Amino acid sequence: MTCPLVAVFALAAALPWAQATPDPPRVQALRIVLLSTMLADRGIGEWGFAALVEVDGRRLLFDTGGRPETVLSNAREMGIDLSDVTDVVLSHNHSDHTTGLLPMRRALAAKNPAALSRVHVGRGIFWSRPSAEGEENHVLKVRGELEAAGVRFLEHEGPAEVLPGVWLTGPVPRIHPERNWSTRGRVRTPEGLVEDTIPEDQSLVFDTARGLVLLSGCGHAGIANTVEYARKVVRPAALHAAIGGFHLFPLDDQRLDWTADRLRDAGIENLVGAHCTGIEAVYRLRARLGLSRERAVVGAVGASFELGKGIDPLDLAR
Q1: What is the DSSP letter of 25?
Q2: Is 13 within the bounds of a domain?
């Protein structure tokens, strides 16, 4: 005879709302290699940014460098074949992040027609940036050529999980008063011509068992805003690593200290400050955060971050 209490528990467990919610997917393997930035002890340095992402057997290219051949040349020197990379994320419209896309697409499509054929962008990247010298938006200027070359754009208005445990933030809300952009530009929005705050600025976030890993191109939305948004839309985990450009080089010491304090609040453990982060800014953040030389470095061409192994800065930035 079945005990009535056991029967009640069995019935409760069978009800839909009593079923355990499966854990969201977590990234198991992650390696990020810098292919374009200013500092270089191998390859070519430039004012630009690009990074190759290898995540759980998939590969993504994040930004495409500032000159036509930099990323392809650096990849060749490092023995990296980019022809099997189908998806690209563009953090924003600026030419130092987007110029390499068209020549790379043309070069690699000869080997693989799908190479760099899907490009993820944030809403606003195709808005005109008029100036006295003409159109300043490089992506807008070459959009027709890119599409004629077989590129398909996927425009994101909000966060999206592009791979299991891999999130694109989409445009980031500006909660904190970070102004990490030049104030000279103008953008033609649906509401009219206004100051260009680079509204399409977006980053990649990797959800790992060790915490969140953030990959940023310039961080024009502000690193504090981006981290806070990532912890809201992905999960409120600690920031295991922040990698890329964060446009901190113009900031004074007071603003850098404020930024470091926000990163401390987020639990940051590793920092690779490349491109527009600024060398002095990286050193001040490192000191304020109390991070070691192994955990906070200036990003160089070929430098990498690997989940479970940490940062390999190469020789010059070690």
Answers
A1: P
A2: no
Residue 189: HSE in the Cβ half-sphere, 13 Å Cα cutoff: 14
For the chain (length 318 residues), average pLDDT per consecutive 10? 45 49 85 97 95 98 98 97 98 98 97 98 97 94 98 97 97 94 88 95 98 97 97 97 97 96 98 97 98 97 98 93
- Residue 243 sits in a domain of what CATH number? 3.60.15.10
The pLDDT tens digits for 28-81 are 999 999 999 999 988 999 999 999 999 999 999 999 999 999 999 999 999 999
**Structure tokens belonging to residue 170:** 């989409």
Read off the DSSP letter of residue 89: E
| Cα distance between residue 101 and residue 164, in whole Å | 25
Establish if 19 belongs to a structural domain. Answer: no
* Domain boundaries, position 252: 24-312
Q: In which region does residue 192 sit, left (phi positive, over 0), alpha (psi from -120 to 50) or beta (all else)?
A: left
Residue partners of 180: CB distance under 8 A and separation at least 6: 218, 219, 220, 221, 222, 223, 246, 247, 248
Residue 116 CA to residue 85 CA, distance in Å, equals: 6
162: Cα separation from own chain's centroid? 13
> Where is 156: in which H helix or E strand?
strand 152-156
Is 297 inside a domain boundary? yes
Q: pTM for this structure?
A: 0.92
Residue 229, amino acid: Y
Question: 148 and 142 in contact (C-beta within 8 Å)?
Answer: no
pLDDT digits (tens, 9 = 90+) for 213-246: 999 999 999 999 999 999 999 999 999 999 999 9
Indicate whether 287 belongs to any domain: yes
Query: How many domains would you assign to the chain?
Result: 1
How far is Cα 133 from Cα 186, in angstroms, rounded to an integer?
Answer: 13
Neighbours of 182 (CB within 10 A): 13
